[in-house]
Every structure is written in C-alpha cells, then in structure tokens.
C-alpha cells in the first residue's frame, strides 16, 4: 500500500513550503480513507512517494482519474499567508491504497 502526493513544480515553492503542502495533502486524503485501509497503510509503514506536476490542470486531471477509480484523494489550496496567493492549488494526494491502483493514476509522473 502507498500514497502518492503530487506537488506543482511550476510554482517554485521553497523546500519548507513544499513540505507543508505535501503534509496537508497527505493528511487530507488520509482523513477521507476508510478505517480498514487506514489501519493497513499505517501498519505497513505509511509508504509515500512525492511526484511532480507542471500545473494546476494536471492536478485536476489526476484528481478526476482518482475519483473515477474510487480512490481517496485531496486537492490542496494554499491559504496565502507566505509565498503564494490565497487559493493557489499546490498539491494533490492520491490514496492511501493498493500500489497498483495508485500507479494507475500517478504511475507516469516523475519523482520530485
């Protein structure tokens, strides 16, 4: 089992900002996951991969793909307190779920 977090590389977020957005995405998708999947993922070490996207539209296409597959997911919009304008879409988490299910959505992306 794993979770994929897709972050926008086109925004030029600093490392701390990127880490915060990835954390927001991970937790948000986790909260929408059923308890049995949560338990299995946590027991298996909470495997995560962080991947790159090159724009907002790419994140929404991936979110639609996850939605059609019935995979928990979460789009993150920044609050705008630091580097980005309020409402800027920064990241998407897909899963946790079975590796092959997650890969059907995010398998073509590069590691961040």
Automatic annotation (TrEMBL):
Enzyme class: hydrolase
InterPro entries: Pep_tRNA_hydro_II_dom_sf, Pept_tRNA_hydro_arch, PTH2
CDD domains in the cross-refs: PTH2 (cd02430)
Claim: Nucleotidyltransferase is one of the keywords in the record: no
GO CC terms of this entry: cytosol
GO BP terms: translation
Catalytic activity: an N-acyl-L-alpha-aminoacyl-tRNA + H2O = an N-acyl-L-amino acid + a tRNA + H(+)
This protein's UniProt keywords: Cytoplasm, Hydrolase
Protein localization: Cytoplasm
EC number: 3.1.1.29
Gene Ontology molecular function: peptidyl-tRNA hydrolase activity
Function: The natural substrate for this enzyme may be peptidyl-tRNAs which drop off the ribosome during protein synthesis.
PANTHER family: PEPTIDYL-TRNA HYDROLASE 2, PEPTIDYL-TRNA HYDROLASE 2, MITOCHONDRIAL
Record-stated family: Belongs to the PTH2 family.
The protein's name: Peptidyl-tRNA hydrolase
Gene that produces this protein: pth2
């Amino acid at each position: 089992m794993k979770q994929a977090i897709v972050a926008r590389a086109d925004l030029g977020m600093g490392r701390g900002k990127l880490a915060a957005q990835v954390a927001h995405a991970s937790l948000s998708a986790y909260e929408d996951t059923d308890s049995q999947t949560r338990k299995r993922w946590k027991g298996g070490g909470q495997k995560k991969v962080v991947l790159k996207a090159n724009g907002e539209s790419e994140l929404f296409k991936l979110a639609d793909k996850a939605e059609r597959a019935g995979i928990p997911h979460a789009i993150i919009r920044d609050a705008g307190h630091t580097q980005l304008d309020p409402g800027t879409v920064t990241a998407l988490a897909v899963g946790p779920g079975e590796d092959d299910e997650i890969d059907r959505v995010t398998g073509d992306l590069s590691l961040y």
